[in-house]
Write a structure and sequence with these properties.
By secondary structure, the protein is of the alpha+beta class. Helix content is 35%, strand content 23%. The strands form three sheets. Strands 3-4-5-6 form a four-stranded mixed sheet, with helices on both faces.
Length: 211
Amino acid sequence: MPVSPADRTVSSKSTSNCRVTLYNPYGTGPLYCESLFEAYAAIIIMARNDVADMSCQYQVRFGDGDNGVHNFDILVRYKNGLVKLFAVRPSIYVDEKLLAAIEDIRNYVLNQHADECEILTENVITQANVYRAGEILRARSLLNAENCRRMTRTMAGMPGIYQVYELLESFGNLASGWTAMWNLIDQGMLQHDCEDPDNMRLTHASWLKCA
C-alpha cells in the first residue's frame, strides 16, 4: 500500500523499466522502485544515519494536464524534520524538460510537499557508494555490540593509518571483524582513507583511519 496519499502505483514491468521491491527498515511498508538505478539510490539513502522514514513514487502536480505532473522517485523524512524529494536519473536523461519541471516545482508548489528537492545521478549513485551502503545495511542487521567494543580496542593499538587486512588480523576473526568494522564505519568511528571514497570500493587492501 502507498505510504502517502500522494504516492502512486508503480508502473508495470516493460522493456524500458523493471520493478524492484526493497525491504523498508523504517516499518512503513515496502519500497517499490521502477528501476535498479532507483533501488540503488534508495539503498544509499537507507544506509544514512539521519533518515527517519522514506517512501517511493511520490506525485507532485505543478500545472495543468499530464505535463504538469512530476513523479519523484523517493521521498525522505530526516530525523531533524527535513522532508526531501529526489528525482533519480542517469545524467543522460536529465534534460531541459526535467530541469524546468523541477524548477517550477521549487518555485510554486514545493512547500506543499517538502522542504527541498534534488536530482540524483551517477555522481552520487556510484558503484562504491552502493557497495558501501549494502555492507553497512548488512552489518547493522548483524550488529554485535561486544565485537564492536573489541574492534574499538583493537583500533586503539593500531598506527594512525592501516590497511583493512591488518585490522582484521589484529582482531583475530576475519568474518566477525569485517562486520564489526562496517558497524564502526556506520557509526562514524572509522573512515576509508583515500582521496575519493565515493568512487573507490573498500577492499581488504584499502587504508583505514580513525574518524
